[in-house]
């Protein structure tokens, strides 16, 4: 069990690392004025969080970065909170874009995938699960992030991207659950780092959701990004966008 101070420290550290992609030191936290504590006290708290598996250190003289366990703690708290409103600028763009969609399921998937990829800077794959027909976009933008400077990571993710259609049968139950009913279309699943069993994306985060499409089809949405992705923003994007599509489909 973490103390209130440790929870606050962990949340602030994760927010900072998501924003900067730089390891966070106790000195930088003191300078940020989030805490009225000494650098030594913060360092002790960070040492304790590291011993519990929430933080890790890339270099002995550097700051800390969150582990998969820390991100899981962070995401679970986000989902259970009521502070997940979509950013106003994103909401306006989604509303404007989706207001003109027709009743072609594939066109809806294409528009949604391009929209979410632009807003999240992550890979987005939108498809019709029953037909294994997918629209994929966003790979080039992902490779501009610091996490993907290693050629081996680029190769792994590119291979998974290219083979997604072929391996979907294998990963569908893991990522989306066993059911494909419209009743489950608004459920969201988030798999962080080692929680993914597919070796090609073992260092990434995968978000999945289902949504309704015309002709009683069920859409499947997959977002793939670094474990450092902006969870607050992306969860809001997925929930709002799939919710809007579900409402639009009811009116068709």
UniProtKB/TrEMBL annotation:
The keyword Transcription applies. Residues 1-72 form the Winged helix-turn-helix transcription repressor HrcA DNA-binding domain. It comes from the Bacteria. Residues 106-235 form the Heat-inducible transcription repressor HrcA C-terminal domain. GO terms for molecular function: DNA binding. Keywords: Repressor, Stress response, Transcription, Transcription regulation. Transmembrane segments: none annotated. GO terms for biological process: negative regulation of DNA-templated transcription. HAMAP family: HrcA (MF_00081). PANTHER family: HEAT-INDUCIBLE TRANSCRIPTION REPRESSOR HRCA (PTHR34824:SF1). Negative regulator of class I heat shock genes (grpE-dnaK-dnaJ and groELS operons). Prevents heat-shock induction of these operons. This is Heat-inducible transcription repressor HrcA.
